[in-house]
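Service request form, structural biology core

Requester: graduate student, group of Dr. S.
Request type: structure prediction, single chain
Budget code: on file
Notes: please return the result as structure tokens.

Sequence provided:
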Amino acid sequence: MNLDWGSVPAWLTGAGSVAALFFAAGAARAAVRSSKAQAKQLDKLEREAEIRAQDQKREQANQIAAWVVLDEEALPSVQCINASGRPVYNVTLTCHMDTHTVSCLYAVKKPDNESKQLNYATRKIREYSSMILEAGTWGDLYRQGHLKVSIKFLDISGAWWQRDENGRLHELVNDDISSPGPSGSITH
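Core staff response, request fulfilled:
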């Protein structure tokens, strides 16, 4: 029996083809790893860009807050600050008092350098003292965490925001935006 082993050039060509196949497979794996790494980097950059865009969008809203303090006579006073340097519109303050709420609407809240007392909202809270004080004094309500305020407003870019009674800021979507009740409305 006589086997034909071929010629040396044919063997070299075959060995070169196999080697080229291994190198091509290695290059393909490296290209896939590089592509995956680039995709991860691109995802990271996109997330960072989204965070920066959201931070820019929240910039004005982050500088607006409202809260309740007790004055020297232990009466509630609503304080507010708009440190953004730009006005906000359709501001609804809702004072949460135990089981009652009082809402006040302000067309515009101008920028401030320091917090200001909102006289109308303060007066509206104090008008309901006979209903509220069944639960104790203003100081009792304040210490128990039952005397808080939330604020909803429209920023200059047209976005609606709400800082809830615990101070957390939320952007509102169309379903969350309802027309405020009449100024000084009370609900139980």
